């Protein structure tokens, strides 16, 4: 894929309010910021404003997401863990880092009679 097409795709996503997952996001559009998510659980799904934008590939490593500037609802979740929710505010051109620590959902003993 050529660089111009990648730039157009990133810009289109940023304008639409969606995100791009990856180690290197390249040039960030003027109306977007970078959200760097670090999570302790691989396989956790990342949502921005209720839209799935990616999955944590490797525990405890940062993954960058290009997000339109402004206020957004962040949700990180995985089955068997408590959901992580936070309202974030992104400034155009800035990088915000979020460290997410998912905790296991408590289990209850069930008695069968």
Give the secondary structure arrangement, pairings included:
Blueprint: H1 3-16, E1 21-22, E2 32-39, E3 45-48, E4 51-55, E5 62-68, E6 70-77, E7 84-90, E8 95-100
Parallel strand pairs: 2-8
Antiparallel strand pairs: 1-5, 2-5, 3-4, 3-6, 6-7
Write out the CATH superfamily name. Immunoglobulins
What are the segments in which pLDDT stays under 50 over at least 5 consecutive residues?
5-24
Strand order of the largest sheet: 1-5-2-8
State the CATH class: Mainly Beta
Assign the CATH architecture: Sandwich
Q: What's the structural domain tally?
A: 1
CATH topology: Immunoglobulin-like
Radius of gyration: 16 Å
Regarding quaternary structure, how should these chains be classified? single chain
Helix content: 10-25%
Largest sheet: 4 strands, mixed
Global geometry = elongated
Structural class: mainly beta
The overall pLDDT, averaged over residues, is: 81
Distance between the termini: 61 Å
Give me the number of helical elements: 1
How many strands in all? 8
What proportion of the residues form beta strands (DSSP E)?
35-45%
Order of helices and strands: HEEEEEEEE
Q: Outline of this structure?
A:
The chain is mainly β. It has one domain: Immunoglobulin-like (Sandwich), CATH 2.60.40.
């Amino acid at each position: 894929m050529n660089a111009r097409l990648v730039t157009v795709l990133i810009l289109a996503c940023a304008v639409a309010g969606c995100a791009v997952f990856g180690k290197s996001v390249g040039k960030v559009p003027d109306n977007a910021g970078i959200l760097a998510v670090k999570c302790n659980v691989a396989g956790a799904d990342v949502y921005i404003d209720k839209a799935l934008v990616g999955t944590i590939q490797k525990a405890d490593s940062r993954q960058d997401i290009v997000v339109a500037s402004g206020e957004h609802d962040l949700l990180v979740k995985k089955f068997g863990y408590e959901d992580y929710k936070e309202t974030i505010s992104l400034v155009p051109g800035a990088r915000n880092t979020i460290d997410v620590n998912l905790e296991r959902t408590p289990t209850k003993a069930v008695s069968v009679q």
